[in-house]
Amino acid sequence: MRFLITAHRWLGIFLCLFFSAWFFSGAVLIYVPFPSLSTDEQLAAFQTDVNPSQIQISPKEAIQKTGIQNLNRMRIIDLQGNPIYVLHKTNKKIDVIRADNGKHLNSVSYDVAIEVAKKFTGNSIGGSKSSVEYDQWIVYESFDPYRPFFRVELYDSEYTTLYISERTGETLQKTTAFQRGWNYVGAVAHWVYPTILRKHWGLWDQTVWWLSLFGVIAASSGLWLGIIRYREAKRKVASQYQGWMRWHHILGMLVGSFVLTWIFSGWLSMDHERLFSSPKPKADRIEKFQGIPLTRAIENISAEALRNLKPFRELEFKVVRGRTILLMRRQNETQLLAQDKLGKLAETELTKEELVNAVQKAWPEAKIKTADKVASDDVYSQLREGRMPPNTLRIVLDSDSETWLHVDMDTGNIVSVMDQGRRVYRWLFNGLHSLDFPGLVNHRPFWDAVILFLLTIGFIFSLTGIVIGVKRIRESIKKND
Questions:
Q1: What is the pLDDT of residue 13?
Q2: What pLDDT, on a 0 to 100 scale, did the predictor assign at position 234?
């Protein structure tokens, strides 16, 4: 019992500041999420469509010029009126080849970045000519292949900053003064996201995982001690303590269960395959789903076939069960293309049968049980913190874990792999942390009122812990003097 009291006391002193920050920042995150640019916004940033008539180099020739053996992704976009191939290697590096003359593009100049920014915004530009590898708003691993970035500041009323890749000239991040200010007390505080820590993913992952685990221990030990002390008082009074300890005890009894489940579910957000499987398909599964390597799939696509296309914002080369598919993106519109018998590129679609066969090829150990479109109100895919594409096909495997494969029929992408463990995770994390429960999360502002009330009470409870912790430290210092 003494060990439990000591552990809770000193863990509480150390973690009460984190608890209060997590509750406050959680409320901020509801209304001011971490800055990001959607695919549509990124496409809008190009402004100028690719002019297919300028394409002189075929996809095969572009790959040959780079010497790439293993290709993960391949796209065509526009850069200052010139079409370029962006080749994503399996090692997460990028090569860029001009599609008009086959020259290798090592980097984009600052002057080009300025022109890209002007087209995107139409505003005057400020800022320095230096590029940055990392800062607070480009810490995600998804930015790694595109580093370094030109950070371009705009002379507008929102004090907007654009991040333009020095590798491809793409505008991949946009922030405003409002977002930056609130995110320091929102996402940055909530996710323990200071740049110096977050840019080292492994260190950040271990730090926050252990920090959250100690938080779970502190919350669970406190709830247990609170119950014991209440029973010892024989229920004659709400609490046997006085002053701040009394408030801490009473509030702990009232909201202790919420505090514990909220900290526990927050800890689960850092699971990263420690207890639950990953929702992302493994590389070998993707290879089997595709059927043949992308380098082989694009061999027969000629530069002439590409020149006959209408202007587009982005063209991505894909392969599903051995069939080459081109995903053409225009602003607010996507279209799938495939070669006909004459070698021309014509509109096509991915059929349910085709995707089911591709999944069966990738998961040969289990038979297909069912394959149906995901409903718009599905509780496993239409979540507050992440919604699947509207045309998603759910393919259920007849296996021990009854794995669900979600495939986007508009792009051919495997959106997620969801076994029984992942479905449990949905309720333990999304349910407990965001109150993402049917009948509640889709009824706003009632949901807002409930979660803000709980977060406020949790914040006040944490403040009582801070006061008690400060007093305890002062007492310890006086005893040692």
A1: 87
A2: 61
Whether 114 and 158 map to the same domain: the answer is yes
- Residue 209, CA distances (Å) to 141, 264, 267 in order: 18, 11, 6
Rounded (5°) CA angle 21-26-29:
125
Report pLDDT for 312: 96
Q: Each residue of 228-250: pLDDT tens digit?
A: 877 776 655 667 778 888 888 88
- Check residue 83 and give its pLDDT: 97
Query: 242, exposed or middle or buried, with CB in 10 Å at 0-12, 13-18, 19+?
Result: exposed
- For 340-375, write each residue's pLDDT tens digit: 888 899 999 999 999 999 999 999 999 999 999 999
- Residue 71's nearest CA partner among 83, 80, 62 is 62
Instruction: Look up residue 372 and give its two tokens.
Output: 């149906």
Q: How far apart are CA 123 and CA 197, in angstroms?
A: 34
Q: Supply 379's token pair.
A: 């509780």
Residue 436 DSSP SS3: coil
Structure tokens given for 206: 């271990």
Residue 166: φ, ψ to 5°: -75, -15
Q: What's residue 246's pLDDT?
A: 84
Both 457 and 409 in one domain: the answer is no
**Rounded distance, CA 328 to CA 315, Å?**
5
Q: How many whole angstroms separate alpha carbon 459 and alpha carbon 283?
A: 43
pLDDT of residue 129: 67
Distances (CA, A) of 456 to 201, 265, 448, 461, 462: 31, 18, 12, 9, 10
* Domain count across the chain: 3
Residue 17 located in a structural domain: yes
CB 49 within 8 A of CB 78: yes
pLDDT score for 10: 82
159 part of a folded domain:
yes
Domain that holds residue 164: 39-183
> Are residue 158 and residue 249 in the same domain, yes or no?
no
Q: Residue type at 321?
A: R
Amino acid in position 40? D
DSSP state at residue 104? B
Q: Burial-class residue 305 by CB neighbours within 10 Å (0-12, 13-18, 19+).
A: buried
What residue ranges of the chain have pLDDT lower than 70?
123-124, 126-129, 233-238, 481
Q: Is residue 122 one of the residues assigned to a domain?
A: yes
- Please give the Cα distance from 99 to 63 (Å, whole number): 11
Beta-bridged to residue 71, according to DSSP, are 89
B/e letters for 411-449, b = 16+ CB within 10 Å, e = fewer, are bbbbbbbbbeebbebbebbbbbbbbbeeeebeeeeebee
pTM, whole model, 2 decimals? 0.91
